[in-house]
Amino acid sequence: xxxxxxxxxxxxxxxxxxxxxxxxxxxxxxxxxxxxxxxxxxxxxxxxxxxxxxxxxxxxxxxxxxxxxxxxxxxxxxxxxxxxxxxxxxxxxxxxxxxxxxxxxxxxxxxxxxxxxxxxxxxxxxxxxxxxxxxxxxxxxxxxxxxxxxxxxxxxxxxxxxxxxxxxxxxxxxxxxxxxxxxxxxxxxxxxxxxxxxxxxxxxxxxxxxxxxxxxxxxxxxxxxxxxxxxxxxxxxxxxxxxxxxxxxxxxxxxxxxxxxxxxxxxxxxxxxxxxxxxxxxxxxxxxxxxxxxxxxxxxxxxxxxxxxxxxxxxxxxxxxxxxxxxxxxxxxxxxxxxxxxxxxxxxxxxxxxxxxxxxxxxxxxxxxxxxxxxxxxxxxxxxxxxxxxxxxxxxxxxxxxxxxxxxxxxxxxxxxxxxxxxxxxxxxxxxxxxxxxxxxxxxxxxxxxxxxxxxxxxxxxxxxxxxxxxxxxxxxxxxxxxxxxxxxxxxxxxxxx
Length: 498
Description:
The structure is a single chain. By secondary structure, this protein is an alpha/beta fold. The chain has helices at 4-15, 29-33, 48-57, 111-116, 129-143, 150-155, 157-168, 173-183, 189-200, 205-218, 227-246, 272-284, 304-316, 325-328, 342-371, 403-420, 435-443, 453-462, 483-497, and strands at 20-22, 39-43, 61-65, 74-81, 86-93, 96-98, 106-108, 118-121, 124-127, 253-255, 260-266, 289-293, 375-379, 427-432, 473-478. The strands form four sheets. Strands 1-2-5-4-3-10 form a six-stranded mixed sheet. A five-stranded parallel sheet has the order 12-13-11-14-15, sandwiched between helices. Strands 6-7 form a two-stranded antiparallel ribbon. It starts with a helix and ends with a helix.
């Protein structure tokens, strides 16, 4: 499926006479133009700023490497195409930085060679096969001279041969040798031809490595690093990969605009959990994303002993268990479970404090992740409305006296203090669905006896409003429509807001 966004980008680049070309891996151009692979565009220095303006105008966003080095001269731009439901990744180069797979090890003065020898393949300007063959051959033998690249090369030996054959199909050897002489005279014609034959032929790995050492010796002036700099860069690379493994982060990109907390809130049976999961999967295809559940925060070391004691109290003294919310909810006055008496009131207050503490810890940790560029998607989020779902539970009862009332009021003050310390989310998606639809969906969730119709009504009453001062953007989404339509709507909303 073709990408409307990519077609629009290419047409705009062409109409505004941007000097660019797709400069490598043109054998996979069809996959790149469908959005399946990233688009490697080399932009002439004089057109670079204008190209960035075009990308921004079309909704592309700049991304950075989260763990590792962001290389000057290489930029990452991502756009979202609703037609293909894929991200379009434009890998923008202003210089020809290439070489080893894990480190951009060499800088070549090949911009003019690639840009001046380009023609159109459909709407895309593509460098000629002769120019690409010159660069591809040099790139491959830089890799054969890198121990870290050998595993990749062995696994992809057939792919390398097929790409060389594809480049030779329709290229002009005389033109390729002329370009080599003009732009990379350090490599003579006989060595270049031997390199091409080696890539295509059945030659041992040892012979390829020996030839790579000769090629790398000739082009050492184009090397980006001294030996000590290379060791330092490699050490940093290993360290960043360990960080990713420890953090269980599969993707390594963050938006240049910074991270964000996205809260998806709404009553039961509005589709929160499904939409949180799908949104996380979608953004997690590219960016560093974590999903948290503020409605059920993990128990911290500070609250674990208290929660254990509360569990034991309720296990062995079942009369002290809080009754179900639908039994305590009064639709006439909208009041909520603040009327337990005696020890039950005490236990409810303690549980409210530990829950507030755990939510605060979870969301402060999420906020620190956002400060490092991550996108945090939160299933439910506390509002500042007392008695709303996932929000402060306790209200002070100033009209009452006695030690129990004093304790309860102090607990309410402490709970409110913890919730006040929680930062406001950046983006909130408020889900809405009719109570009748919610009841129907709930009956299909196979939770007999756990969530009655009365319970669903009460939860909808609790979430009639969601408000937290300081929230940057709040979007209301009707989830009566099919899941696919709802998800597409949310993706477009979030991509604009991020």
